[in-house]
Amino acid sequence: MNELLLILLAYLIGxxxxxxxxxxxxxxxxxxxxxxxxxxxxxxxxxxGSRWGTFVMLIxxxxxxxxxxxxxxxxxxxxxxxxxxxxxxxxxxxxxxGHIFPLWAEFKGGKGVATVFGMVLGISPIxxxxxxxxxxxxxxxTRFVSLSSILASIxxxxxxxxxxxxxxxxxxxxxxAVALMVVLTHQKNIGRLIRGEETKASILKGRGRKxxxxxxxKKQRG
Length: 222
Description:
Number of helices: 11
Number of strands: 0
Strand content: under 5%
Number of domains: 1
Oligomer: single chain
Distance between the termini: 75 Å
C-alpha cells in the first residue's frame, strides 16, 4: 500500500505541466498551440526563448529527481541495494508517465526526456553526467536538440549494459526501454531531420556571431 501511494505521488509530481503553466501565466498562451505543439522544454526554447526553455527544462528534470527520492520514505528498502534501485526506477517511471500524460493538463504533456534525465541523475549520477556529455557534444556540433536527445538516450543503455555493466536486470531493461521510448516519441523530429527541416536551437548562435564579428574586425585591421 505504501508503495502504491508513493507511486501515485510520483505521478502527480511528474504531472506538473511546467511549460503549460509558464506559457499561460507569463505569455497568456498555451505552448501546445505553437511551434511543434509539444509541451516540452525544446518547444519552449523554440517559441519563448532560451531563458524560459532553460527554466522549464530544469524544473522538468527536478520532477524526476524528486520522484526517485521518495524511495527514502520506505526504510525497509534501504538494506537491499537492488530492491531500493527497483523502487526508485518505478517511482521515476511514474513521474515520467505523469510528464507525458499530465493530470493537470488534459493528459497532453511533453516527451519526458528532461524528466527521465532527472530520474537517472537521482539514481545513478555518473551515468546521467555521461549522457549529458553526449547531449552537449552533439548539441554543440549540430545545434539540434532533438538529435542530441536521441543520441544521448541511445548512449544510456550502452553505458548501463557495457561501460558500467550494471547488474540489476530491471534497470538494464529500463535503460533499453528509455532509448526505445525516446526514439519512438521523436519520430516526427527524425522525419524533419532526414528532410532537413528540423529547427536548430539558437543557444550557440550568439557565440558564433560574436566570433564572426571578431574575425571580420581583425581582417579589417589587417
